[in-house]
Amino acid sequence: MEQRSGTRARIAPARSDAPPGWRRVMEKTEHRATGQDGTRLHWTSTGAGGPSVVLTDGIGCAGYVWRALEPALARERRVLHWNYRAHGRSAAPDDPERMTMDDCVSDLVAVLDAAGEERAVLAGHSMGVQVALELQRRHPERVAALVLLCGAPGNLLDTFHDSAVLRYAFPFAKQLVLRYPEVARIAFRTIVPTDLALAYAMTFEVDGARVRRADLARYLDDLAAVDPALFVRLLSSAAAHDASPHLPQVAAPTLVVAGEHDSFTPMRLSEAIHRAVPGSELVVVPGGTHVAPLEDPELVAESTLAFLASHAKPHRATHRDVATTSPAKKPRRRAARPAATEPSPRRRTPRAQKPRVR
């Protein structure tokens, strides 16, 4: 296994001498792709140059975890972010049974095709790790590198909170949701995006001293917007999927990022991926949880940039290429929560504890 040195990459500042065309592509633009079954998929693009990085979320998420990493990567290369079907601004499928891992992988291929990317770096968080690994298994020629953050190779219900309880309880919960979909929908949208749920998550699931309430509030809002009947179908498919047998055959350069105290996907799962994937590199965020990219954004960004500089060196788009890039719409901003419930972000202070890099 390769071992990384303790040096950090320096994040370059945004270019001030870029021509107007270049500044335009540094803005985030919105686009659409179409899944194999006709489902409309939403994706965004920012930055220029390649190999591009494609950001793939966890289930129920629509981009909250990439708040710090996306702009850091976009200073060096093009960054794409997409929404799963029935998530964020992507449409729900006409056939509710088309909420599977297979559909997620084929949708990601559709986004790559629509973006004109023959080969890209796949960055996945949580369930996005499974999607990235499965695409690499099916289409290795399209993957320049893998960045796997706070995820498991599969069977995600077996290890949630390091317990099999959810695996045994989920079939009953799924049956109830599918039998009473309207009741489940009302309950989901009433209970999930509440101050009580936010307080619980900030206290017990993440490091509340290092995570902004606004980030977790966005996660809960995005989760509540997903139809629970479609959510449980996708979760069931992800729970049955396992890319573990493929790990020794992964030929793409791979960086694994783990949160030391991740309760959703315990650190040992990231360590297992690191041991199984030849030549992979592992970075452990001290004290990090399942949202480690938000708890120590500098470490995660700098580790990712250093890894990509070694294994997927960025090449800038020429000014001519930028000038011919067709403009697109800017994304619409999400409505902010009332200011009274939003405290000032805490300033991060340096810590003596250093990242564990293997």
Notes on the structure:
- With 358 residues, this protein is of the alpha/beta class.
- The protein has a domain at 22-163 and 241-321: Alpha/Beta hydrolase fold, catalytic domain (Rossmann fold, 3-Layer(aba) Sandwich).
- It is built from 13 helices and 9 strands.
- Helix 3 packs across helix 4 (127-138) and helix 5 (165-179) packs antiparallel against helix 9.
- The protein is globular and about 50 Å long.
Output the keywords.
single chain; 358 residues; alpha/beta; Rossmann fold; 13 helices
CATH-derived topology of the domain at 22-163 and 241-321: Rossmann fold
CATH-level-4 superfamily name of the domain at 22-163 and 241-321: Alpha/Beta hydrolase fold, catalytic domain
What's the total number of strands? Answer: 9
* SSE order: HEEEHEHEHEHHHHHEHEHHHE
Ends distance = 8 Å
Q: Indicate the structural class.
A: alpha/beta
CATH architecture of the domain at 22-163 and 241-321: 3-Layer(aba) Sandwich
What order do the helices and strands come in, and which of them pair?
Layout: H1 20-25, E1 29-34, E2 40-46, E3 53-56, H2 69-74, E4 79-82, H3 101-115, E5 120-125, H4 127-138, E6 143-149, H5 165-179, H6 181-191, H7 195-205, H8 213-224, H9 228-240, E7 254-259, H10 267-276, E8 281-285, H11 292-295, H12 297-311, H13 319-323, E9 356-357
Parallel strand pairs: 3-4, 3-5, 5-6, 6-7, 7-8
Antiparallel strand pairs: 1-2, 2-4, 8-9
